[in-house]
Amino acid sequence: MKVLLVVVCVLAAFAARAEDSVVKSCSAGDDRIEVLIDQAGVDISMKVQEVARKYTPEKGSSAYNILAAEGASFVIKDKQLGDFVKDKAVVSNIILTSLFGLRSLDGEYDMVHYYVDKYMHGLKCK
User: Fold this and answer.
1) 113 Cβ contact list (under 8 Å, min separation 6)
2) Are the C-beta atoms of residues 57 and 85 closer than 8 Å to each other?
3) 3-state SS, residue 75
4) What is the pLDDT of residue 10?
5) What are phi and psi of 105, to 5 degrees?
6) DSSP H or E segment with residue 34
7) What is the pLDDT of residues 17-68, one digit of tens each?
């Protein structure tokens, strides 16, 4: 009976630990671009966007402050985030495609590849 209790306790501990190790979100970025990847139910939500910049209109115009950010959003259907981020080629290609779509990086092909490498190495998951 004691052996059975020990086995049940050990299995419960492993089950709790396995639940804690599930990847729920990943992010990377700097002061210019941010990459956000989240588990959204059974799907994955991925955003690659410029960091919002405060836009203050010229003098004499209305006094609104507008946050401007350009980016791309993706939904990857029926995939677990932990498995998805292991496929580095797919993740880097999505980031690459998104960065090529930003007007601020238009014509900056060498910089786009630099940023993809930087964000892939800086991708932190929790």
Assistant:
1) 96
2) no
3) strand
4) 46
5) -110, 10
6) strand 33-40
7) 444 469 999 999 998 899 999 999 999 999 999 987 766 667 766 656 666 6
Amino acid at site 124: K
Average pLDDT value over all residues in the chain: 82
Collapsing DSSP states into helix, strand and coil, what is residue 30?
Answer: coil
Tell me the domain boundaries of the chain.
23-125
Non-local (6+) Cβ contacts of 118 within 8 A are: 28, 30
3-state DSSP call for residue 11? helix
Report the pLDDT averaged over residues 7-20: 47
In the structure, how many helices (H) and strands (E) does the chain have?
Answer: 4, 7
Looking at residue 76, what DSSP letter applies? E
Question: CA 79, CA 86: separation in Å to the nearest integer?
Answer: 12
Count other C-beta atoms under 10 Å from residue 49's C-beta: 17
pLDDT above 60 (res 9): no
